[in-house]
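Quick start: read one record
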Amino acid sequence: MGLAGARPSRKLPEEFRLFASELPNTRAWVFNQAVNVNVKICGLTTVNDAQAAVQAGADAVGLMFYAGSPRHVSMEAAQEIARSLPSSVIRVGVFVDPDPSDVFAAVQLCGLNLLQFHGAEASEFCQQFGVMTMKAFRMRNAESLVDLASFSADAFLLDSHVPDKLGGTGETFNWDLAVEAKKFGRPIFLAGGLTPENVADAIRAVQPFGVDVSSGVEISPGRKDPEKIRAFIAAARGA
């Protein structure tokens, strides 16, 4: 799944190796358990969009560090967005086969609580950063579930399989696969083509731990619509 192979990593700078050993243990940290489903708004590129997500009640926001995405943010922009968020909102860094030093830098500079990996990363790679991890899997058919059985992550994100796209596809997949994925004992985040119009149906069908939306609340790639964000979260809460 994902890309053909992980990019060879550069030597990790000494300051990041030291930093990793000093990270707090965040694995016991949990999402907001006062709601039936957690909502993550992904692909934020501006402080204004982040504030719209927070004001609408989002539990988590996603910052895209993959340069190949139209929702990519620079480290400086990500820092500015992260600083604008209340501590109650989870800061998720989204990566595709990154260099480890880039991940450590993002954790340190943006205060990331959760790392989301969309490439060909191995379990061991994802676990080295001392922060909760979520691995994305692209669902095509029942065979797409095979890799979940042996992958160690704190949560799984299930997205649609669209050739040459790693996320933000705007396409749904067979939600029965997400129901089946729950048997692996990890929290499931449902993604792929969710909108204010269908998210309630998706939640009722799958009963996931969380839902993830990007293109479904956008004006254009990387530009969020505050009204769509409010409608999406209201629909999710009312499911």
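Helices lie at 14-22, 47-56, 75-83, 100-110, 123-126, 175-181, 199-206, 226-237.
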